[in-house]
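PROTOCOL LOG
Step 1. Enter all chains and additional molecules of the complex.
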Amino acid sequence: MTEPSESTRALRVYLVDDHAMFRAGVRAELGAYVDVVGEASTVAQAVAEIAAKQPDVVLLDVHMPDGGGRAVLEALRRTQPEVKFLALSVSDAAEDVIGLIRAGARGYVTKTISPEQLADAVRRVADGDAVFSPRLAGFVLDAFAARPDVPVTDPELDLLTNREREVLRLLARGYAYKEIAKELYISIKTVETHVSNVLRKLQVSNRYELSRWAADRRLV
Amino acid sequence: MKTDSGPEPLVKVPPPPRRLYRDPSNRIVAGVAAGIAAHLGLRTAYVRVGFIVLLAANGLGALLYAAFWAVLPTQAPAVPRRRVPFLQRAALFALAVGVIILRVQLGGFGDDLSLIALLALVAFGAGVIWHQADPGRRRRSAASSDVPSPAPAPVAVAVAAPSVPVSAPEAVPAAAAAAASAAQARTAEVESLGDRRWFPVRMIGGGLLVVVGIIGILGFLAPMGPNGFGATLTGLLFGLLALAGLVLALAPLFYRVFGQLREERVARIREQERAEVAAVVHDQVLHTLALIQRNAGDTTSVVRLARGQERTLRNWLYKPATSPTERFSAALEQAAAEVEDTYGISVETVVVGDAATDDRVAALVAATREALVNAARHAKVGTVSLYAEAEDEKLSVFVRDRGAGFDLSGVDDDRHGVRGSIIARMRRHGGQAEVRSTPGEGTEVALTLPHSGRDSS
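Step 2. Run joint prediction.
Step 3. Record the structure below.
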């Protein structure tokens, strides 16, 4: 995930986080790669400004006092289909992460990510691809694992293909897309397609009650 | 959660006076006879026969039984319910039928029988209501939420352990245990809520039985005839009116008292949770922050302290309480934590699925730890990825770094770490180890162990 930027136009990025210190840090780090067009500390402010400014990518904090990233997503997803959302969080709780993905975020990364990787993730999301952190890949593998007690209603949506599973495993092992492509003898574009498909399944599949799954593991 | 609750278990509590209980675990009807027998040290069958024989005295046995049932509390069942042998049941039933037939043959029951039946009805109705407010029942559901009562041990440990070393691994299970006991308390709350749903039914049903019984007794005792009964009814009406007035006068008082009790309960639960959080924040987070300030010049130890504290907090917030000696995932996380603490790196741990541990799994964890240590020592990078998956027939572990890497053919036999601790160890336990490394790009160690039976719990 560390290829150099080759975009002709700087991506317009909007920050939503209730910690001013963190926003300042991200702004400083990302400034070299993208154009940070604005930032918000509350859900209401974010919803209003994102609709007005039409950024390419919104970096969204999971936990905020008045509803968090989920509230922003739910308010904007219908009206602003062009805006892509990338969740950025310190939380490792499956419920938070998968909840945001299901609400429409195109990816999830932790706040400890390096600036280059974050810029790369932003680019990827802007291109319509998905971004999975190793931990998210692990969650997805766990959630879609063959389990006798969960009925499969729609195999198209409720199961991962072997290839998708392999890609996720490599992601969870810390491989970059380029390395996955090399390992599996496929193109980077194919890797991206697999990850996007997994993201779609994660968003649409009703295979398991996500909340129940998280509660079972006491990850709430 | 009070810190001074530690020494409590040491205080010797005098044994409580022996009390008479019902014993529902050994019952035919409601366990009254069994309870009395246990209290008196008699055989249960004798007491049961006694009750049946007393039936002959105008049904006195039934009245006594109902009265005992109404007033005796139950003890928290220590043993699962025993089945009373069928033979004994049949014999007792036959005896009861025999007693009744004999009594009828000898001249039938007198008018007293109706009176006794009505008294039994009142006792039964009262019992239904009283058992609802049974302190034993409430104590049982409240026991786990009341901290100073029966379970201070894990809580005391949770308070004590983290205060010793800042990021000691044992702090994690202790805090998790505290979280588990809190969760238990919440479950108990839910159960008692479910119990509460029957509250109105029991109150109204029991009340109806009592009222019907009392009216019946009045009707029975009042001189028969149009006048007498009418007078009784009028009296009853006045009585009811007086009662209604009293209820009206006292209702606000009762309401306030109930409200206060509820508020107090909520406040206590809140205080308990606050204390739990405060214990973690105070004993660990503040301590770590102090250490970070003192070591501000030393980047490695600052990173190590921050990372260790982050891990502890995460565990406390999100992780299920599993023991590293029992579960594969917990063991791996512990190994990763130790390596993080020792070498000041961060290990990105992702575990999919879980399995119980045995000797071979323990060997896999040990090999993983060795691979992590190698990466921490030689790769010269800040982050190592650890991925493990428990599948139906095998466990796999991958340790990957993007560090210096090395030329595999150049590794001598004296590099005990890789050859002995990883490859040979895995072979010994029927598994495999594969090391891939490219100088300048990093190293990946893949470990697999055939295994039977995944469980995802």
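Step 4. Note key features.
The first strand of chain B starts at residue 346 and ends at 352.
Residues 226-294 of chain B form the longest helix (69 residues).
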